[in-house]
């Protein structure tokens, strides 16, 4: 028996695959800068899409509330608003739970 650790070739292959072909700590010059720029652009796109979704969601909520006010008899408006808000709350809670699981 030798005291030197043996390396499995599949572990090295998985490490190279996970890092885009280079082993950990041995990136080619400029390769990490390209990944940093790509990551930054991805995050900027995500922020822009989230802002767009917030604006669209707010406009949808206001339009749906206006539609409820126009089409539903006054006696049932509060019930429809409550049901609509409950559905949105449940969907938001589900989405938050999914994202928390992904982050962990």
Order of helices and strands: HHH
Which class best fits the helix and strand makeup? mainly alpha
Percent of residues in helical segments? over 70%
Tell me how many strands there are: 0
Please give the alpha-carbon distance between the first and last residues: 40 Å
β-strand amount: under 5%
Q: What is the CA-based Rg, rounded? A: 25 Å
Tell the overall outline.
elongated
Q: So how many helices?
A: 3
Oligomer, anyone?
single chain
- Average pLDDT: 80
Q: Summarize the main sheet.
A: none
Outline the low-pLDDT stretches: none
Task: Provide the descriptors you would attach to this structure in a database record.
104 residues, mainly alpha, 0% strand, elongated, DUF8060, transmembrane, DUF8060 domain-containing protein, membrane, transmembrane helix
